Amino acid sequence: MLENANKYHLNIKLTHEIGSCVSFLDVQINNQDGKIITAVYHKEASEPYIVPFKSDHPRHIFENIITTALLRAIRYSSTLQTFNHEIRALKLMLLYNRLNISMLTNDRPYNFGDDWRYNERTVPSPSTINDKICESIIRRDAILPGVDRKIELLLYLGIPIIIVVFWLFQIIHWICSKYCWNEDEQQTENLQQDSKDLKEVIIHKDEPEDLSVVINPKMKLLATK
C-alpha cells in the first residue's frame, strides 16, 4: 500500500516506522508503558526561527504564528507537564526572535500563568476542538495589537484632542487681546502723544527752560507763578 501511495506524487514519500516515539506532521506520539502521550513535534531544521517581527509582512501573520502555536499546545498536549513545556518553548521562540516578553505580560498579555487552565474537553485526548472552545480559550486579548489598530486608536483619540487644544488657544488669545494687550496699546499711545508734544515744544521759538512743564500741566502752572 505504501509503494502505491509513493507513486502518486514524486515529491511526497511515505515511510513506516516502528518504535516508542513516532512523529507525524506536527504531532509527536509517545508510547509510555502502554499509554499514548502526544505532544507538539518541533523540527530542529526550522525552529525556533520564525518571521522577524520587524519585517514588513502584514500584521495578521505574526498574530497567526502565536495563535497557531498556542492552539497546537492546547490540542496536542496530553499532560500538564507537556503543556507547560510547550509554553516555555513558545516563550523561548519569541525571545530568540527579539520579541520582548514584557510586551506579552504587561501591555496586551498572553497570560501564561494560572489563567491558562485546561479545558476538561481538551485534556484527555488530542482530538480536535470546535470553534467555540477555541474562541473561549484564545479570545483573551491574546493577539498583539497590529499597526492598523494603533493607527485607528491614534486617529480616534488624537483628532478630538487637537480640536480641543485649538479652541483652547483661541480662547486664550481672545482673553489676552481684550484685557491685556489693550492696556499695552493705551500706554504706547500715551508715550507717542507725549513725544509729539515734546517735539512741538522743541521746534517752537519760545522754548521753555524746563521741558517737563509740557508733559505735566500742573508743573506749567507752578512755573508761571
Automatic annotation (TrEMBL):
Domain of life per record: Eukaryota
Protein keywords: Membrane, Transmembrane, Transmembrane helix
Listed transmembrane segments: 153-175
InterPro entries: HTH_animal
Pfam families with a match to the protein in the record: HTH_animal
Domain Helix-turn-helix, residue spans: 49-98
Entry protein name: Helix-turn-helix domain-containing protein
